[in-house]
Amino acid sequence: QQWQMNIGVSEDDRFFSCSVWRPQGKSYLFFTQFKAEVKGAKIEHAMAYSQAAVGGQSDVPLKQEEFEITETTVAHREGKFRFELSKLMIVAKTPHDEL
Model pTM? Predict the structure, then answer.
């Protein structure tokens, strides 16, 4: 199954983003769990999707109870995650260095 990953950095190098998704939209894989971890930064925003946008359709987000976000991880929630994942997106902020 084909997946893609994009990593981007803001012009001021304070934020970076990472997206992993299935370009064909919905994955036929049965996920029992998932976890993405950020090192050297804190997660500002994250979202997980059961279906990625394709052919004019929009991303379909997981229900909020299916996953949890901490300062450094995005992961499935045991007993709540419904085994479908086609996209994961994270925006994180690097620590600010004082002069």
Answer: 0.89
